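Bug #2210: token dump truncated for ATP-binding cassette domain-containing protein?
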Amino acid sequence: MQSFQDLMLKADISFSYPDGTRIFDHLSFTADEGEHLLILSEPGSGKSTLSRLLAGALPGYTGGNLDGYAEFDGKDILSLPPYERMEIIGRVSQNTDEMLLFSSVEEEISFPLMNLGLETAEKDRRIADCLELFGLEKYRKVSTAELSGGEKRRLMLSILFAVDPCVYILDEAFDELSPYWRKKLREILSGLDRTVIVLGSHMLSEYDGVFSRMLSIENGKAVQYVPVKDSYTPLEMKTGNSVLKAENIEIERIHRSSGSSFGLSVPSFEMGEGECITLLGDNGSGKSSFSRVLSGLLKEKSGRVLINGKELSQKERRHSVAYLMQNPYEELFLPTVLDELNSTGADSSRIDYVLSLFSLERDAYVQELSYGKAKMLQAAVFFLLGRRFAIFDEMDSALSSVDFHRVLSCYLDNGTAVLVITHDMSVASMLPGRKLMIEGGVLDEH
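Reproduced locally. Full output below:
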């Protein structure tokens, strides 16, 4: 029989990237068998790096200097190849797209179970159970590319629960989930007898009662988390003259992989320059599809989009409405932060101002940025482009409350109208302006 001590996760890790950037300096922590541990830290503090190191995604693929140990069941898991860690440690990545490899939901869940050598009956049982657990039964044959951000998050959770490792690591896994699924995940984790480590950038009400301990990462070390009450300057809207309208919009998207379809009706939508509007709705309800129509990235089935009474083509919308996508890496293409900012055509003094405003390092490599820092860069690029209308598609996920408030303040202070899509009701409650909701395939005033 294994001892309680053997099943404790005990780590002391030091890690530097190939360029010499020191991330951890003897980051030391323990997690008892069955303990639920919450690690809350600022974007860029190393939370995702820690999850990748423990799961084996680092340093093998990017290089770097790793010292120390992470012991579990009498083994140093840092010395094991990733495929030998599967039953010990599993993770849900903050960036779901980086871990999706196959053409359908079923294949994504099936692949790691095949690697475990499970018999077909057991594999099929686990797939069916986890699809049901996270409400994905109807998406079994659907391509992962056709899922919404929240649906991809639930798929990654399904994979983790199907594999059922000894230690679950959830990197910002509550983000992009609707309030219903946040509550559901909270209930599932509360009843889970596995060791659970959740990594987050800000406190959520859904965390209450789930975790026995809370830590933070500061200066490369793990320390006791100390709650800090953030104070904010009230957000103000500076109204202007321009008005963005959508009239009688009908959107239809067909899942080509399964033949199923999705529809959204927007009888009327109006947003004035400088206004802040919050858009709410369940995962897959059509929030991102509507955003893509407004910004010219998706063609509506019928209806029209206008600014100041002039109907806009798709190309004209792309130059009028900024769409900050859920995944910032879908809009970042160049090697360094400075390269991305220079691509906007802004002069050097303006770029220096924005680097300071959004707390960015000019020579940092984009692909080495944390997910939160990538969102800050995404916001900085569109801020320099100066669109009068902007859509924040879950910009609050992976950012600290302070950083999100700062980004939104910058846009509103500049007179930009912002449509904020969020699943965090505490965020929605602090925002000025109107609240809209998508329910039953229709967008309407909430």
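Output looks complete on our side. The radius of gyration is 22 Å. Marking as cannot-reproduce; reopen if the truncation happens again.
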